[in-house]
Amino acid sequence: MIIFRQMFDSQSSTYSYLLADSATHACVLIDPVFEQARRDAAFIRELGLDLVWTLETHVHADHVTGGWLLKQRLGSKIALAAASGAAGADRLLADGDKIEFGTRHLEVRATPGHTGGCLTYVLDDKSRAFTGDALLIRGCGRTDFQQGDARTLYHSIEERIFSLPDECQLYPGHDYKGATSTTVGEEKRFNPRIGGKRNETDFVGYMANLNLPHPKQMDIAVPANLRCGQPDEAPPADPDWAPLNLTFAGIWEVAPHWLEEHAAEVQLLDVRERDEYVGPLGHIAGALHIPLGQLDGRAGELPQDRPIVAICRAGGRSAQATVILQKKGFTRYASLTGGMLQWNAGQHPRVGGFDYDAGL
Ligand SMILES: N[C@@H](CCC(=O)N[C@@H](CS)C(=O)NCC(=O)O)C(=O)O
Ligand SMILES: [Fe+2]
């Protein structure tokens, strides 16, 4: 079975696609975004997947790829078209190549025209294809920079994408209107630039008159992507005061066993209600008690010189507490994974509380 996820970067309206082989847990990520690398890495870790390749559909002009960052974080390899001219890849691809992940693979199709090095990745059973910006939903990539050429794009779409089965699902590199996917049959009928009876002349005429402003990030994105997303300076490190885990929801969490050993080095903050703090689950010694609803107004009571670990019943309210702490300007904070429930299940020491099984 294939595990498939479509992820969105709202800043650049970019889609990234995760494809995993459920039999072996090997996965690939198509068109990761730099700013989303932490999100993507956390997600891949949570699902227990092994990121084998990050794949670029092309050298993007509007956002920086997350390929290099993910390679640092997860040890994945970077692949993109030889024709892209980019440096720093582990593999340079050409038409007809195969990208294997576990028992599955993607077929590489050269679909130049938006840029000189555009690739479309087709899943082995031809049920899905990832077209980058060659073909967008009811649109296509612009052809006015990066060796763009409308005639070339016309032939790429007609011969290398529209030759796929009509029911093949197509996933684009971007969508600016909220659509998520399409099919070959749908685009053949309804794409205003190339669908229906429109021919090469119609297409070239359409593309010559788009008159789009250049992407805002172009001067930063293109040079960075020609290095597969390696920044000039090392990016800010992850927090190092504890071995924190970043969840897919964007929350820094700390594990109970770490907290038990390091409780004296941090400020514990219990954000449950009063009756819970003194209730059956007990609380951790030294925890300052500020219910979540009062945290915004009482954040001044917290010390600035130590990291803060927020605690609740199951890890939900404490996650929200870290969001509030971040807004208040704190830089070192985490939520206790699983809250007092997991803390007690692991037999860590607590103050108060009582055991139902023991009959109080
Ligand atoms: N306003 C966007 C421009 C995005 C843009 O030009 N996107 C390219 C893909 S990299 C494109 O081909 N757009 C086609 C279109 O908008 O029709 C930005 O500044 O990033
Ligand atoms: Fe593009």
Question: What are the defining features of this structure?
Answer:
18 strands; six-stranded mixed beta sheet; binds glutathione; 360 residues; binds fe (ii) ion; 11 helices; alpha/beta
Polypeptide structure, described:
It is a single chain. This protein is an alpha/beta fold and 360 residues long. It has eleven helices and 18 strands. The chain has helices at residues 37-46, 67-74, 150-161, 184-190, 200-207, 218-225, 256-262, 274-277, 292-298, 316-327, 339-345, and strands at residues 2-9, 14-21, 26-30, 50-55, 77-81, 91-93, 98-101, 104-110, 119-123, 128-132, 169-172, 182-183, 245-246, 252-254, 267-270, 288-289, 308-311, 333-336. The strands form three sheets. A six-stranded mixed beta sheet has the order 1-2-3-4-5-6, covered by helices on one side. A hairpin with a 5-residue loop joins strand 13 (245-246) and strand 14. Helix 1 crosses helix 2 and helix 3 packs across helix 5 (200-207). The longest helix has 12 residues, at 150-161. It is elongated. The relative contact order is 0.10. The mean pLDDT is 96. The structure holds glutathione and fe (ii) ion. Glutathione binds next to loops.
